[in-house]
Amino acid sequence: MQLDAAEVNNNYDAQNARVQKARAMLSEVRARESAHTTPAAKTPLPDPKDKIEEQNLLHTAMLASDDDRPAEARQALQNVLTLDPKSPTALRQLGELELQAADYGKPHNI
Fold first, then answer.
1. Does the pLDDT at position 1 exceed 70?
2. Which residues are CB-neighbours of 54 under 8 A, at least 6 positions away?
3. Positive or negative CA dihedral for 86, 90, 94, 100?
4. Domain for residue 40, yes or no?
5. Torsion of CA 65, 58, 77, 52, to 10 degrees
6. What range defines the domain where residue 52 resides?
7. pLDDT, mean of residues 60-79
8. Among 1, 16, 45, 57, which residue has the least CB neighbours within 10 Å?
9. Which pLDDT value is given to residue 52?
10. DSSP 8-state class, residue 106
11. Residue 80 falls inside a structural domain
C-alpha cells in the first residue's frame, strides 16, 4: 500500500539513486536518437495555413478531371507546381492526365 496513492504530495528527490539512474538512461536514449536523426528530419513541417491555396487547386484539378475537363485540371495542376515545384500529388495527377490523353510524347510547360 502506498502512503501517497493519490500523489498529492511531491516526494521527488533529485539526489535519489533511482532518479539518478533514470536520468542517465534517458540521457543515453536521447543521445542515441539525436545520433540517428537526419538533418531533414529536424526541418519543421510547413504551417497548414500556408498550403490552403495548394490544396484548393488540387481539389479543383480533381473535380475537373472527374468531370472530363482535362484542360482545366492541367491548368490547376500547373498552378500548384508554381507554388510547389516538387508537389508529388500534382506531379502524379498531371502524369495521370497525360496517360489518359495518350499525350506522353509532347512536353508541356511544367
1. no
2. 80, 83, 84, 87
3. positive
4. no
5. 160
6. 48-100
7. 96
8. 1
9. 95
10. S
11. yes
DSSP string, 3-45: TTTT--S----TT-HHHHHHHHHHHHHHHHHHHH--GGGGSPP
Q: Is-contact 57 72, C-beta < 8 A?
A: no
Residue pair 84/90 in contact (Cβ under 8 Å)? The answer is yes
Cell of 99: 496517360
Largest pairwise CA distance in the chain: 78
Q: How far from each other are the two terminal CA atoms of the chain, in whole angstroms?
A: 70
Q: Is 94 helix (H, G, I), strand (E, B) or coil?
A: helix
pLDDT for 9 equals 83
Domain tally, the chain: 1
- Is residue 3 assigned to a domain? no
Asked if residue 62 belongs to a domain, the reply is yes
Rounded to an integer, what distance in angstroms lies between the CA atom of residue 94 and that of residue 73?
8
